[in-house]
Amino acid sequence: MGILVKQTDKRQLSAKHLVDVIKTKHEEQRRERSLKGSAPRHQFQWSFSDKDVTLDLLRLMALYAIHNSQHSNTEKERIWDFFVDFIPTFFDLDDAAVQERVPKFQLDSGEEDADDPTPLELTNGRSRRNGRRGDLLRGVLDPGRNTNKSRASKEGSASGSKETTPDVASGNEDETPEINDDHASSDLSNERWMPTIPKPTILKSGEDGDLLTADNELKADGYFPRPWYNFFCNQSIFVFFSIFHTLYQRLREVKESEQSVTESIARMHRVRPAHEVGLTESPKLYFESSDTPDTYWPKTMDLIEEYIVGDIDEARYQEVLRHFYLAKGWKLYTIQDLIRTLCRLSLTCSSVDGKEKTYDLIKQFLASREREETSYQTEISARKFAEKCVKDGELFVICWVCTSSLMYCSVDCDSLY
User: Fold this and answer.
1) How many other CB atoms sit within 10 Å of the CB of residue 350?
2) 59 phi and psi angles, rounded to 5 deg
3) SS3 state of residue 202
């Protein structure tokens, strides 16, 4: 299993395979719903009940983001900021615990800033020098890039010449509405449902939390408290959480394999006649006979951190996991490759490029995350906004339930509302 794990992960955790699996399961549920009349509306149910493991995984991700050599210092900072800001907010992690566990990001001396000691920092984390030669070149190659003019100003400044060809990229600016941080998103017009949308009505919910009033009228236009949060997202975010859950599950399986470590320690310290006569050498031990089950996981985390940072080689890392976690340890052989994929996806999620809408979807979710109440019209408006951002791609919805630490993931959420 350890020999084949790298090839298996490369195939089964690719974006294409993950999307194909959830789409296939969605189609099977649709057929089951048409035949039997009922089927779950979500395709996957993921549990994140152990927040300590989530914190440990976040620490490993932050360590790799700081010490990897594939990215520049500016990109490292963007990756670290995304991990530290987004993951604790999504999973309701304690701020004090995050500050204690996650290492701080510190820039190396002078690699990025050798030419200019005071580079200007853009909103997307990339440094911009004082000269504008690169910006002019980008403007020639892509006229619609980095433009801040509105459509009205463009129409007012048009010369009216018939020989002038309109800019194709300029028409994309008004396709996606801006995200509002308040409840104003529920006021968006939607002619598919009704000509005018009623204003939200604040109603006091009963002790039983019923959605019907005393007159048996549906309170669909009012706000109600919720223990769940819907995240309407695209393929990049879905793949990110799929790999994140895979790493979480593997770490938790290793953490819960205390019996295997205890048996391995007893076997390694057993008297060996071949060793007494000099036919074999003493094995390289990592756990001592004095270690207790409470120290197994902290020492294993130290081993993984040393491997990620580069203090020990891959052979020694795999040897310890193979000796003490024979049934589950091989699943952590490719932890560097999976975290490297998460870093690459985090750069996409934190990009504020006009053509990349992943950041807008995350911004909308974080705005919804700050509100304890929602309405059905607000959820519908959030989905409509996500549809405009995704366009021809697949639309996913990730529902995070805070009370049970469960995550429900589904694709093509046309039957949710």
Assistant:
1) 21
2) -65, -45
3) coil
For 307-334, the DSSP string reads HHHTSS-HHHHHHHHHHH-TTTGGGGTT
* Predicted local distance difference test score (pLDDT) of residue 347: 94
Percentages (nearest 5) of helix, strand, coil residues in the chain: 50, 10, 40
Instruction: Read off the tokens for 312.
Output: 């020990």
Secondary structure of residue 212 in the 3-state scheme:
strand
Say which amino acid occupies 387.
Answer: E
> Per-residue DSSP letters for 330-385?
GGGTTHHHHHHHHHHHHHHHT---TT--HHHHHHHHHHHHT-SEE-HHHHHHHHHH
Q: Are strands 228-233 and 127-128 parallel, antiparallel or unpaired?
A: unpaired
Count of Cβ atoms closer than 10 Å to residue 307 Cβ: 22
244 Cβ contact list (under 8 Å, min separation 6): 57, 342
> Can you tell me which residue has the tokens 């992690």?
93
Residues 310, 67 contacting (CB under 8 angstroms): yes
Q: What pLDDT score does 202 carry?
A: 44
Q: How far apart are the C-alpha atoms of 287 and 148, rounded to whole Å?
A: 60
d(CA 329, CA 141): 50
Q: Evaluate if pTM is beyond 0.85.
A: no
Buried-exposed string 324-342: b where 16+ CB fall within 10 A, e elsewhere: bbbebbbbbbbbbebbbbb
- Sorted by sequence, the CB contacts under 8 Å of residue 249 that are 6+ apart come out as none
Cα→Cα distances 30→17, 19, 24, 322, Å:
20, 16, 10, 43
What pLDDT shows up at residue 346?
95
Angle at 54 between CA 50 and CA 55, to 5 degrees: 115
CA distance 323 to 62: 28
Task: Identify the segments of the chain with pLDDT beneath 50.
Answer: 109-141, 143, 145-191, 202-209, 415-417
Q: Which residues contact 75 (CB under 8 A, 6 or more apart)?
A: 125, 347
In the numeric block, which tokens belong to residue 68?
Answer: 């990897």
Q: What is the DSSP letter of 172?
A: G
Among 41, 67, 62, 135, residue whose Cα is nearest residue 411: 41
